[in-house]
Design brief:
The complex is a heterodimer of chains A (366) and B (651). With 366 residues, chain A is α+β, with helices and mostly antiparallel strands. Chain A has seven helices and 20 strands. In chain B, helix 1 packs antiparallel against helix 6, helix 2 packs parallel to helix 4 and helix 6 packs across helix 7. Classes of the chains: A alpha+beta (366), B alpha+beta (651).
């Protein structure tokens, strides 16, 4: 339940890694929430999906074409595969039937029709292939997420031809996430999500781009790994888990117990906030996720210290620290972070916040 | 997922486009069911009705089956099968759950348009089917365009382009695909129905009905001059058996060989090739008297040419006839057969026959006297003859005296037989019009005719046309000149408008060539085509391998065609191309653009080095920047840039 919100709510824009690019706004309504049954997923599943034979060691040579790549990849002829869909096979059966009928009834125009449909199939084969082949791909950026959430990745699809490339679907791990059109001489973003199970660096791995346009008789697809990665912050502990012995400095008053908190108003939902604190009534009314805020005269400066936490297990400790960072940032306090071997001076603001969470995410890696 | 209701509309239109040419031959129950289902789906589209529940769909399916049974008595066979597929498409409209349901409807549509060719293979129906195929393909696009970002025009353009790109491969396959003489299995009985033409029996009214049809029976191309109208008797069948009302075939046993070779080929042979429209029967038409023919047809003793299979598509054959020669074979059995009359009927006619025979010197003279009798007595030629009673001959000869060619030929043969002269009825066509635009003759259903043949001991079988005694113009000027009721004549034929005539001949000429090269393209034509290219004795396996090679080549050509689309140079590319040309010209003059330099910075340097080029260089730079980076570059920018760069001289 904790992760089943759509990333559409989270952000309206994604900053790409390249400095010269403008932030690219994506249409979030096409993004799919976890488990939401959006129509075309089920219809896509009803159709034929060929097995991903590239995983077999025999086909290593194919795997080389998949990547990982850095920078721009052009989908050339070696990277785009094509096969008939189930509908395509039925179409072939229809052609056979028409041919037998034409022979049997000796109808010349029957032959003409059969052959024109066969020719059409041939044209469709190339047209479907061409709808995908030749496009250029670039990693489109991603946002850090908390463990347990889904990391969203964007792929930039560049169309250099003047013809629109229609209905290109992006999927990952057998699940389809988005369908995009790429207009002629333009760039479009396609998004997919990857489960962020553990903190640290998450590799997006390879994803699949496929298209059945223009007829659904053939499916052209490619597997590509663009070495996309994102940072996964530790899973924030729920507020209730926070031990009272949290180190707070430079405040005159001692930290009040959780039970004594008083309601301090609403603020916009922050990733990691407890669902219990979401003001559902307000959400229902305004369609915006908001969290109830409590405070009890907290101090202005807070050290979030690895040592001072009486939590067993380093992952649990990181979880709690993450929660504290989130809360401190939300409350507008100055906070510092102390990890074994790492110390971040107290500050606040978006970059400080990111800095702290990154340190927590990468703790113990290096 | 349910397909959105508004997406039903194009599918509904598609089904109707597929069905349009069959409306006229679908039975009323089916049409009614179709109308109800259409109305219902329109209500669903308009949001006034819901998709029917599962039980209601079962009921609907039941209603459809009942409608089919009520109309055809069965759900098997060609026509009921087609109607059933059509009905299933309509029913499928009510349970479109996923894309595959729509695809099924579209595929059934592709199949159903092919069934139109059972009834007509005219260029018009071919053109119609072509358009419907484009439409159906655009439906495929509707349902694979998952964001719904294409509009109707885009889809139709895309679809039309794809179908056009399919034509080269179609042509290759059409010419090279090895043709097998079908059918592979016996055709259902109703595969042969729904054709018009002279039937294999004749009773009053049977030919009469054909007169108002301007449909083409066959087209003939003569080698050399066509014979005179009076010799254009196209023999179809010989009817020897009469039961008092109807004339039927009574062919000599098959083992009796005809005497084709005995006929002198020297006597005015006429060579001709016939393109016969499908009539669903097993015989061909020939001019009398047949001398020789190509192909494995059987020729009966009565000189009827029979085929093994029903003619269900345009059929071409070549023959030679001789206008002078006669069929001289008559066995005792045949003599007896051709004298047979029903007993105890038409006594007055029999008496008349005997009286006139007594008065005549020989059989020939007797025949003349009968023709004379028809001519001098008050007999009239009409398309609306009165009904005849049990003693049909007496009724006709002594009472009504008005009739059509079947009445006259029938009466003539009756009177001949009554007087002991072997005689028989021949049905076929008489006449034909030359198409002045193209050198061939058109014989229409309205040229259907019946005449007689009598046996004269010294001459053999002689043709006698009693109709000509009543209305000589019928033979010399064709059916239109016979002075018949104009209202019964085919409108197109009856008109004398010059433009209309011209148009008619052009259309028919198109039809003729279409039949000759497309509809009639068969094993023989295929072989003849290769022979004309100097390739003799091509067998099926060679043909097949050629086909595969040609297909591959053509597939490559089409691939290139498809891939080239949209890859043409965009404005940005054009700009870069000409700007780099400009840079190269400067380079040759000794000034090289640094990669790090922007066009503006480069311009400054150009002006420093070549002050006299300032205007031209800044013009080019401006145009280039406008096209490359400016939002609204148009063709004017392009033209100016191209011209300026081409005229640019650095020195």
């Amino acid at each position: 339940m904790g992760n089943s919100y759509s990333i559409a709510h989270k952000s309206g824009e994604i900053w790409t890694g390249q400095a010269n690019l403008q932030p690219i706004t994506f249409k979030s309504d096409r993004l799919l929430a976890n488990g939401t049954s959006v129509s075309f997923i089920s219809s896509a599943r009803a159709f034929f999906q060929w097995p991903d034979f590239t995983r077999k060691p025999v086909f290593k040579f194919i795997a080389k074409r998949i990547g990982p790549f850095n920078g721009t990849v052009t989908l050339d002829r070696r990277r785009v595969y094509i096969l008939p869909t189930r509908a395509g096979l039925v179409f072939l059966l229809l052609l056979l039937l028409l041919l037998v009928g034409s022979v049997n009834y000796n109808k010349s125009l029957g032959f003409v029709l059969t052959f024109i449909l066969l020719g059409l199939g041939n044209v469709i084969l190339f047209a479907t292939w061409k709808n995908l082949a030749g496009s250029r791909l670039r990693a489109g950026g991603s946002l850090p997420v908390f463990a347990g959430e889904k990391a969203g990745f964007a792929v930039q699809l560049e169309n250099q031809s003047v013809q629109t490339r229609y209905s290109i679907a992006v999927s990952h791990q057998g699940r389809e996430y988005e369908v995009v059109d790429v207009p002629g001489e333009a760039v479009a973003l396609a998004h997919f999500q990857v489960d962020a199970a553990r903190r640290g660096i998450l590799q997006a791995g390879r994803f699949r781009l496929s298209t059945e346009f223009p007829t659904g008789l053939f499916v052209a697809w490619t597997w590509i790994d663009l070495s996309m990665q994102t940072l996964v912050y530790p899973r924030p502990a729920l507020s209730a888990e926070i031990p009272i012995s949290t180190s707070v400095e430079a405040g005159d008053q001692p930290m009040q117990s959780a039970g004594m908190e008083e309601y301090a108003g609403l603020r916009k939902y922050q990733p990691g906030d407890s669902w219990r604190r979401v003001a559902w009534k307000v959400v229902a009314r305004t369609d915006e996720l908001v969290t109830r805020q409590y405070h009890g005269g907290q101090p202005q400066l807070q050290w979030i210290d690895w040592q001072s936490l009486s939590v067993s297990g380093s992952e649990a400790r990181l979880s709690v620290m993450t929660r504290l960072v989130i809360d401190a940032e939300a409350a507008g306090r100055n906070y510092g972070l102390r990890l074994p071997g790492v110390e971040i001076e107290p500050a606040h603001g978006r970059s400080h916040y990111g800095h702290c969470l990154k340190a927590l995410a990468l703790y113990g890696d290096s | 997922m349910a397909i959105a209701d508004h997406k039903l509309t194009p599918v509904l239109i598609g089904i109707h486009l597929v069905a349009l040419p069959m409306y006229s031959r679908l039975p009323p129950y089916i049409l009614l069911t179709m109308a109800v289902l259409t109305l219902w789906s329109l209500l669903i589209i308009a949001g006034r009705a819901r998709q029917p529940k599962a039980w209601l769909r079962i009921v609907l399916a039941g209603v459809v089956i009942v409608a089919l049974l009520a109309s055809y008595g069965t759900v098997f066979g060609q026509e009921p099968g087609i109607a059933m597929l059509l009905m299933l498409s309509f029913l499928k409209l009510f349970e479109m759950k996923a894309r595959r349901d729509v695809l099924l409807i579209i595929f059934v549509g592709y199949f159903l348009v092919a069934t139109h060719f059972f009834h007509s293979q005219s260029p018009w129906i071919a053109a119609y089917v072509f358009v419907v195929v484009i439409y159906l393909t655009s439906l495929l696009i509707v349902f694979s365009d998952r964001l719904g970002s294409t509009d109707f025009k885009t889809r139709m353009t895309m679809s039309a382009r794809m179908v056009l790109q399919a034509i080269p491969l179609m042509l290759v396959l059409f010419v090279l695909f090895p043709r097998i003489q079908g059918p592979l299995w016996s055709l259902p009985d109703d595969a042969k129905s729904a054709t018009t033409g002279v039937g294999d029996e004749m009773s009053p009214g049977s030919i009469n009905d054909l007169i108002s049809s301007s449909a083409v029976a066959f087209r003939v191309q003569f080698k050399g001059e066509p014979p005179a109208p009076k010799d254009l008797y196209w023999r179809g069948l010989v009817l020897s058996h009469y039961d008092g009302k109807t004339w039927r075939r009574d062919d000599a046993p098959e083992d009796l060989q005809p005497e084709l070779s005995a006929v002198s080929a020297a006597a005015q042979p006429v060579e001709y090739a016939v393109m016969l429209e499908p009539h669903g029967r097993k015989w061909l038409y020939s001019l009398e008297s047949l001398v020789s023919l190509e192909g494995g047809y059987s020729v009966t003793r009565e000189l009827q040419v029979l085929t093994k299979k029903e003619i269900i598509s345009v059929f071409s054959y070549a023959m030679t006839s001789s206008l002078r020669s006669r069929n001289r074979s008559l066995s005792a059995q045949e003599r007896e057969k051709n004298l047979l009359l029903p007993q105890d009927f038409n006594e007055k006619s029999v008496t008349l026959a005997r009286r006139l025979r007594m008065a005549a010197g020989d059989d020939a003279e007797y025949a003349d006297s009968i023709l004379n009798y028809f001519n001098t007595e008050t007999f009239s030629y009409t398309l609306s003859p009165p009904l005849l009673g049990d003693n049909a001959m007496d009724d006709f000869i002594f009472n009504t005296r008005a009739g059509f060619c079947e009445h006259y030929s029938s009466a003539f043969v009756y009177l001949m037989r009554a007087a002991g002269v072997p005689a028989r009825v021949v049905v076929g066509y008489q006449g034909g019009t030359l198409n002045p635009l193209d050198d061939y003759m058109i014989v229409r259903q309205s040229d259907a005719h019946a005449w007689a043949e009598i046996w004269l001991a010294d001459k053999g079988w002689m043709r006698a046309d009693p109709t000509s005694a009543v209305s000589p113009d019928r033979i010399d000027f064709g059916i239109l000149g016979a002075g018949l009721e104009a209202g019964r004549m085919p409108f197109m034929l009856a008109s004398n408008n010059k433009w209309l005539l011209q148009l008619r001949y052009t259309a028919d000429s198109l039809n003729h060539n279409w039949n000759k090269w497309v509809v009639g393209f068969n094993e023989k034509k295929q072989q003849a085509l290769f022979e004309s290219l100097g390739i003799e004795d091509i067998n099926k396996s060679t043909l097949f391998s050629w086909m595969v090679v040609a297909m591959t080549l053509m597939g490559g050509v089409v691939a290139w065609w498809v891939f080239r689309q949209g890859e043409r140079k965009s404005k940005r590319d054009v700009a870069s191309y000409y700007y780099s040309l400009f840079c190269r010209k400067l380079e040759r003059a000794g000034l090289m653009k640094q990669p790090s330099e922007s066009p503006d910075e480069f311009l400054v340097r150009i002006v420093q080095h070549f002050p006299h080029l300032k205007d031209k260089a800044s013009l080019i730079t401006r145009q280039y920047q406008q096209m490359r980076y400016g939002g609204e570059a148009d063709d004017g920018h392009k033209k100016r840039l191209v011209l300026a760069v081409k005229q640019f001289r650095a020195r």
